[in-house]
Amino acid sequence: MRHPAPKAGRPVKHVLRTGLAALLLLSLTGCSGGIGSWFDGAPLTPEEAIRVLPEDNARDVKAGSPLEVSVPEGRLERVKVLRVEDSERQEVRGRISADGTSWQPDATDPSARLVLAAKYTVHAVAVDEDGKRQARTTSFTTFVPEERFIGYFKPENRSTVGTGMIVSFSFNRPIRDRAAVERAIRVTAQPAVPVVGHWFGKERLDFRPRTYWKPGTRVTTDIRLRDVQAAPGVYGIQNKTVGFTVGRHQTSLVDADAHTMTVTRDGEVLSEVPISAGDAKNPTYNGKMVVTEMQDVTRMNGRTVGFGGEYDIADVPHAIRLTSSGTFLHGNYWARGVFGSSNTSHGCIGLRDVKGGSQSTPAGWFFDRTLIGDVVEVVNSTDRNVAPDNGLGGWNMGWDQWTAGSALR
Fold first, then answer.
1. pTM
2. What number of other Cβ atoms are within 10 A of residue 280's Cβ?
3. In the beta sheet, which residues pair with residue 331?
4. Can you tell me the distance from the alpha carbon of 295 to that of 137, in angstroms, rounded to the nearest whole number?
5. What is the DSSP string of 64-92?
């Protein structure tokens, strides 16, 4: 399943079995969000179950604004808040109150104060009186001065990623002079390979080589956007060099018709895993998709992705995001007898799991062997190919088509 879907060209897909009668808990990722929970005998909405300030997807939040996580009932089990500036992640330290109903930043830590031109993510897990867990993940960005622009980018600095990783910039303002901005960002590799940018609209710029990175490659992104004019009167504020290392080469081929996923690492087949993909009404996308997020538990709610009240699963285990529109590869404990034999989901790819997740299940086994940047390719589904800008789908474009999207060519 997946995290709350960013802007998408079509409803997010989920691997939830039709006819699901029970409403479960939510998280902040995946086909809906996290774990849904029951308080006082009635299900709460995601916003009611775990409340976060600033609100999810808020933009231009002022520096120094209050940051708080709370639950109306039950208790918070854990809260993790991360600040991302120029792809550097720093945890915001805080404390859960003695009664477990709220979390606030550590007032004695100066770094806990919200700063300008940064992106924050909040992941919280709560437990109700019956021991049921629910999770929620939100994000927001702080104010960038009107005459400035900033690029939020992935992957994280000093991370180790799969061979399919694409360097992706998302700008907070429309870029008019795309050539000037692209010229100010240089992505190089050792061993050296040509790396070219491709624009998706006016606010997103991705970089990739012709083929997947070679394992062991060290990639450096040199950002020199300070004082670069992106639009009349709008200038960049970033000067920074970041990098990542490419790990082993692992790809997973999902055959939606055969209901299998073949996991291959460095040319050797590790396993063939039984799966359940999207049903006839909600088939899974074909094509190559790159892992962009991983959550040990998340909530998936049909209302957040255009499926109404068809499902609300609070504690989806081992959730691996494949598209920004909400396609996930995730653990499934509520379906029986479908893995390897039939497709029953709302578009996600389901692997057998148990409630709470287990490392010994197919879902847990795959989760433990996956990196951000790994490629999952789906074939023999009845749906169309995933769009190149839906997640890191750029590998679905040929090299000539990719390079044609550069502002420098």
1. 0.74
2. 8
3. 351
4. 10
5. T---EEE-SSSEEEEEEEEEEETTEEEE-
